[in-house]
């Protein structure tokens, strides 16, 4: 089923163009972004069920204008008669312009991005929507699945299912562009918590993408996998700190990509001299086997789109090519300040918030090795699976990743011994330059949100192949 633009956005596109026409004679540049994000969150656990609105829903507009070397943005969420909208906007602009003059702010030339005619639209397709499967039917299926899982083992304390089903519609209009996009994103998660004696363990499994409610069909297998994983953690050992040969599963590879050269190449950090990567463009930062990508249009995941929140078409940006740091990712402002072309990474938490340089789908490219070959190549080490969180220091290239579990490898075989939790730390180039094998399969996932510091949350995905490297574990 094709996901069409919402009535709210579709009905405003012509009026958005009229608004642009009315202001074009007053400013050097004028653009407007309209956004409509709606959805539902389904949650089922031992203690009950909950159906609620999606937590990041929004509906509104943001106008951006250029006047005498200064950019000004104005957001609103009630579309009024055009004359009144123009009058309200001009009043806000005049008040802001007086403050700008008093502050003696730096001047801009025109930001890049709207320098050629572009008329494009995107409507994705999914298998199942809420028109095909009602909310009541979804809750019934999740409740039945919960009951089935709870009955499997008396050690199960709880099983939680969560599904977020989100429809996003956006339109961007300027004197040179008329863009629209409509897509559905769905993510589903199951977490199983078990107890034996005084020990409590849990494991989560998830799926995500440009999908519809067909994700519910994946939950039975994910629930069994989460249960098996939680039960094996009951016998987990503690990791002895040291440097080991490791193989990172795709979700761990993705965490490393996100933390190492995701935040570290957001180019507003270059402008502020907060990222070491600025001084390493064209230099080696990883082994020859490493190629890393960030892109909104290279894969279909939760951070895929036709255009970003500044009207720049999505790109597929090669961050690292054969170990050499090649590019960063940018919004229009950081690209302008650095003399670069914007990469389509200008993203807003909502129409009310500023656009920042943000990651989209960040991942390592696949290689040629087989997982079995990678395991067989290790005399003693670990296969790292699952992840909890990560931290990075773009200024000094430190990294810390909290991993769910490590499977012991001895003489090229998995022994069945589990270690948990595991903390991976180190210096980013040392870690990436130690990569000696890259598998021929790639997986991405995106069930979470990424912040800019402590705020500005946006959907991202990350992933990659299995990677063999040397890492410090504890």
TrEMBL record:
Entry superkingdom: Bacteria
Gene3D superfamilies, per the entry: PmbA/TldD superfamily
GO biological process: proteolysis
Transmembrane segments: none
Domain Metalloprotease TldD/E C-terminal: from-to ranges: 241-468
An example Gene Ontology molecular-function term: metallopeptidase activity
Any one Gene Ontology cellular component term annotated for this protein: cytosol
Protein name, entry field: TldD/PmbA family protein
Originating organism: Candidatus Fimiplasma intestinipullorum
Lineage, uppermost ranks: Bacteria, Bacillati, Bacillota, Clostridia, Eubacteriales
